[in-house]
Specification:
- By secondary structure, this protein is an alpha/beta fold.
- The protein has helices at residues 9-14, 29-38, 52-62, 77-85, 98-107, 118-126, 137-149, 168-173, 194-209; strands at residues 16-20, 42-46, 68-72, 90-92, 110-112, 114-115, 132-134, 157-160, 178-181.
- The strands form two sheets. The chain has a seven-stranded parallel sheet. Strands 4-5 form a two-stranded parallel sheet.
- The protein is globular and about 45 Å long.
- The mean pLDDT is 95.
Length: 212
C-alpha cells in the first residue's frame, strides 16, 4: 500500500472543514472566499453540484496556498480521477470505496472515506484512509463517536452530518480530530456580510479548539 498521508496542518490546527454544497456550484465561490477570509483553512466542494470541479480549479487560484480545497461526495473512481485532475487536495466520501482511496493515495492527496460502525471504520483505515469520516455523525451523537474512538485511538475521526455550531465542540470533546459543517455553518448569516461571517467562524473555531 502507498504510504498513508498525514492530516494537513490546515485541518489539525483549526479542526474545521467547511462543506460547500449547492445545485449550481458556481454560487459557492463567493461563500468560499468569505469563509477563507474569516479563517477557515479547509474547504470541501461537494461533487453533487453542477460545475463543482470548475469551482475547485478556480478556488485553488483564488485562495492562498494555506487553504486546502478538496472534493466531497466522491463515490466512484472516475469522480476521484476527475477531482484529482482538477486540483483537489483531498477526497471525501459518504462511504468507503477502495478504488477512491487508492486513487487518492497514488495521487498524494488526502482520503476521508465515510464509515459508521467499528468494522467500517477499521476497514477504511486498513485501506489507507488519511482520516475516517464518521457519517452521519448526528445519528449517534458525540457518544457514538466517543465509543468508537476509545478502542481505536490511532484512527483520526472527522464528525460529519448534522454537525452544527451548537454541537461541534461536543464532538471534538468526544474525540473527533475535526468536524465538517455544511449548511449549519452560516445558518442565518448572509455570506455577503463579511463581518458576520467572520464572527460566526471565530465563534466556531474558538469552540472546537477549546471544547468544554
Amino acid at each position: 500500500m502507498t504510504q498513508r498521508l498525514s492530516l494537513p496542518p490546515s485541518l489539525v490546527e483549526t479542526r474545521l472543514m467547511a462543506i460547500l454544497r449547492a445545485p449550481d456550484a458556481a454560487t459557492l465561490e463567493p461563500v468560499a472566499v468569505a469563509l477563507a477570509a474569516a479563517g477557515v483553512r479547509c474547504l470541501e466542494v461537494a461533487m453533487t453540484g453542477t460545475g463543482a470541479l470548475d469551482v475547485v480549479r478556480r478556488l485553488r487560484t483564488l485562495l492562498s496556498p494555506d487553504v486546502s480545497v478538496g472534493a466531497g461526495s466522491v463515490i466512484a473512481a472516475d469522480q476521484a480521477h476527475a477531482a484529482v485532475d482538477a486540483g483537489a487536495e483531498f477526497l471525501v466520501s459518504p462511504s468507503t470505496d477502495a478504488d477512491v482511496i487508492a486513487i487518492a493515495l497514488a495521487a498524494g492527496v488526502g482520503a476521508y472515506p465515510g464509515a459508521w460502525t467499528a468494522n467500517e471504520v477499521v476497514r477504511a483505515w486498513q485501506l489507507g484512509a488519511t482520516a475516517v469520516k464518521l457519517f452521519p455523525a448526528s445519528s449517534g451523537g458525540p457518544e457514538h463517536l466517543r465509543q468508537l474512538a476509545a478502542p481505536l485511538p490511532q484512527i483520526p475521526l472527522i464528525a460529519v452530518g448534522g454537525v452544527s455550531v451548537d454541537n461541534a465542540a461536543a464532538f471534538v470533546a468526544a474525540g473527533a480530530v475535526a468536524v465538517g459543517i455544511g449548511s449549519g455553518l452560516l445558518r442565518d448569516v448572509d455570506p455577503a456580510d463579511q463581518e458576520a461571517v467572520t464572527a460566526r467562524v471565530r465563534e466556531l473555531l474558538t469552540a472546537v479548539r477549546a471544547p468544554t
